[in-house]
Description:
Layout: H1 4-10, E1 16-21, E2 30-34, H2 38-48, E3 49-55, E4 59-64, H3 68-75, E5 76-78, E6 83-84, H4 89-96, H5 101-114, H6 121-131
Antiparallel strand pairs: 1-2, 2-5, 3-4, 5-6
Helix pairs in contact: 3-4, 3-5
Amino acid sequence: MASLKDLIRNATDIKQQDDVEIPEWAPGHMFRVRGLPSGDWETYNNKQSKMTRRDEKSGVEMTLRSCKAEIVAKALYDQETDELVFPDVREGISILSKRSAGIVGGLFNLVRHLSDDDKDFTQKVADAEGNSGGDLN
């Protein structure tokens, strides 16, 4: 019998969506969009806000920046070959940063949804209880 650690390690819990069409970029071509693992979301959240201290008098300054293009570059696949569209993430960021904010934003929201990052803790617990097969009442 497999250990709990092995069961977790081998779980297929990252969702994907096929048949994503982006006619503005590639008419008639279908993309696969995959959710991202926890580590990629933590990296995204850490990059999104950065705290810096300028000096004693001015206190703390907070800078926000978006990394939506990075998330999309890591999650966009060619559905026919199952290969990343942007194997070089830096190149993908460069290209996507110059594309429509609406399209990149929509893809980002899809990745966020597939990664279950758009749910609050209560929703995640309710989903887990519904999929556990056990009766928690």
